[in-house]
Amino acid sequence: MRIGSPMRIGLIAMVVVGATGLAACSSGSSTPTSQGAATTTSTTAGATSSTTSTSTAGSTTSATSAGAQNLVVTDDIRSQLVAAGAALNSIPASDYTGLQPGETYYAYDPATQTYWAGAGLVPSPASMQAQVSVQDDGAYLLFQRSQSGSWKAYDVGLAGTPDGTACPVAVPAAILGLWSWGPATCRPPTLR
Q1: Which of 40, 103, 106, 122 is deepest in the core (most CB within 10 A)?
Q2: Residues 104 and 142 in one domain
Q3: How far apart are CA 82 and CA 80, in angstroms?
């Protein structure tokens, strides 16, 4: 193999990308793509592979493009989630200003062909009804959507706590693992 051959250049590029990725993991820095997630994409001999890593409270889990994947929360997705949460509460979406920072998760599970999201809504200071809706059980929402369907929201703020009820929907284990949520839960472990 010649030093300047395309195969050698490709191999060197893979080593550099891999070393950069390992250095980023060991230093704790990454490029966020969605709440608590970072994506590394590498190309080898024409094939592209993406790995998404999620870091929560010191633990990291990953999923390859063949399994459940964290996705980027775009402005459009954010608007859809706010609208679904507002509809659950029978309140206009304009009574909310967005999603709680640091509490938003969004992923796709190809095994069930379902999109999942979790988020807390931010009520408008001008809407008492919206402010009340985000207390207790409504303090956190879980969302699910089939590939061709619309978002369905569930109140899960107290689900799984001694004062709460069971989860109203079963989140696939692949999604729970990707988000570092406990088995058979439906909200982040950071919410008490």
Answers
A1: 106
A2: yes
A3: 6
For residue range 58-100, list pLDDT tens digits in order: 333 344 446 999 999 999 999 999 999 999 999 999 999 999 9
Task: Report the alpha-carbon distance of residue 103 to residue 81 in Å, rounded.
Answer: 13
- How are strands ordered across the β-sheet holding 47-56? 32-34, 37-44, 47-56, 59-64
Closest CA relative to residue 84, chosen from 66, 106, 109, 110: 106
Q: What domain range includes position 107?
A: 75-179
Total residue length of the chain: 192
Do 114 and 168 reside in the same domain of the chain? yes
Nearest alpha-carbon partner for 50 in 33, 63, 60: 63
